[in-house]
Amino acid sequence: MTIRSTGGRVAAFAWLAFAALNIADLVFGFTGDPEHSPTTYLIAALLLLGCGIAYTVGLRPAIVGDDDALTVRNPLRDTRAPWGAVRSIEGREAVVVRFTGPDGDQLRTRAWVHQTSPRAQAKAEARARKQDARLGAQIKGRTPAKFAAERLNEMRDRQRPKTRSGAPDKAAAARDAEDVRGSVSWSIPAIAALAVPGVAVVVCAILAFVS
């Protein structure tokens, strides 16, 4: 299961296309004679920095659930928690995962995907109440974050040890949470996507200023 922001991805791809066309124009001069100057390089570096932001903010963030673990990819950091280490998954203004960290402490990560403001949350609940009579009470107050949390909790229940009756064994899951631990790490590609063009912007800005 992979959960992403459709709007963020569309905006990111739109910017990448815009940047690619503009850089091609700077290099080949489709709309005029190409000009190779520090100012041109600065503009190209700014466009590349925008691509780095589009990647880290629009394309990278995701919530991924597989047979082994739950992974939350935020712009610069990755959180991976085996299902046995996951304590709870909640969804309201955002999907919040509580899990056992590397040191055995309970950690909390908030997913970038499907974040909403309290005002947007209130509007979603108002719309759900209006639809309640027609579609049923089960959708009341449901936001994208809440719906994502419900799906992830269903997957988590399927991964839990089962009792003889076939129901999830919460006691066994609690024991697993003490033994299995998650991890939090920085994303090197995301940092590089921002740092490399960022340094290029600074260098080109200095060259443009002194030229």
TrEMBL record:
<keyword id="KW-0812">Transmembrane</keyword>
<feature type="region of interest" description="Disordered">
    <location>
        <begin position="155"/>
        <end position="178"/>
    </location>
</feature>
<feature type="transmembrane region" description="Helical">
    <location>
        <begin position="190"/>
        <end position="210"/>
    </location>
</feature>
<keyword id="KW-1133">Transmembrane helix</keyword>
<keyword id="KW-0472">Membrane</keyword>
<feature type="transmembrane region" description="Helical">
    <location>
        <begin position="39"/>
        <end position="57"/>
    </location>
</feature>
<protein>
    <submittedName>
        <fullName>PH domain-containing protein</fullName>
    </submittedName>
</protein>
<feature type="domain" description="Low molecular weight protein antigen 6 PH">
    <location>
        <begin position="60"/>
        <end position="130"/>
    </location>
</feature>
<dbReference type="InterPro" id="IPR019692">
    <property type="entry name" value="CFP-6_PH"/>
</dbReference>
<dbReference type="Pfam" id="PF10756">
    <property type="entry name" value="bPH_6"/>
</dbReference>
